[in-house]
Amino acid sequence: MTFLNKLLIATNNQKKLKELSAILIDLGFECVTLRDMGLDIDPEETGTTFAENSYIKAKCGMEASGLPCIADDSGLAVDALDGAPGVYSARYCEGTDEDRVAFLLKNMENVDDGNRTARFVSAITCVFPNGDTIAAEGYCEGVITREVMGDGGFGYDPVFYVKAHKATFAQIPQAVKNEISHRANALKIFKGKMELYLKEGGLK
Questions:
Q1: For the chain (length 204 residues), average pLDDT per consecutive 10?
Q2: How many CB atoms lie within 10 A of CB 42?
Q3: How far apart are the first and last CA of the chain?
Q4: Which residues are known catalytic residues?
Q5: Which domains does the chain have, with CATH numbers?
Q6: C-alpha to C-alpha distance for 18 and 183, rounded to whole angstroms
């Protein structure tokens, strides 16, 4: 395979690295990580949306490395909580994932079963040194359970119930989750946009 260009993946999350690399290598990119580039950057995520924070991280990585850079920002948005925890999903409260799940359930305890809809959101952005930007968002719809169900996954997975599969993300097999997740859906859209960008002469 002939690589078109190096592309920096601005994350140290191994799951994200694996998912993003699989698609980008298939498109002809040589993927490098922050660690590969000797970079220790952690831009302040001041955006009010997942898309804004994804762009901030991708732009920071591009400027630090001189390479096209791709970044992801994702989290949980609960309708009854006006979209919270949203961009603060990873820092909804101090402590562990279990603490954040417990805090979410506490905040939802008076919400009836018909109003517990939520979605996982993933925003992916690639910023190029020439100023071009490619962005995509993916979603997975579900409802928030009243108690933890399942011991797989991570984060809010044990309380995110997907009706079509009659199980939470923590109960669904990983292979199935990888097909229906917000990040998988975002990656499908992103891949299509990147293919069109390359076809139209991007990176020349």
A1: 71 77 80 88 92 96 94 96 96 95 97 97 95 96 97 92 96 90 92 89 62
A2: 10
A3: 18
A4: 73
A5: 5-199 (3.90.950.10)
A6: 12
d(CA 94, CA 100): 8
Query: Cα–Cα distance between 61 and 92 in angstroms, integer?
Result: 25
Alpha-carbon distances, residue 152 vs 72, 118, 133, 144, 189 (angstroms): 22, 19, 35, 16, 27
pTM attached to this predicted model: 0.88
SS3 state of residue 45? coil
Q: Tokens at residue 118, please? A: 């939520």
DSSP 87-153: GGGGGSSSS-HHHHHHHHHHHHTTS-GGG-EEEEEEEEEEE-TTS-EEEEEEEEEEEE-SS---S-S
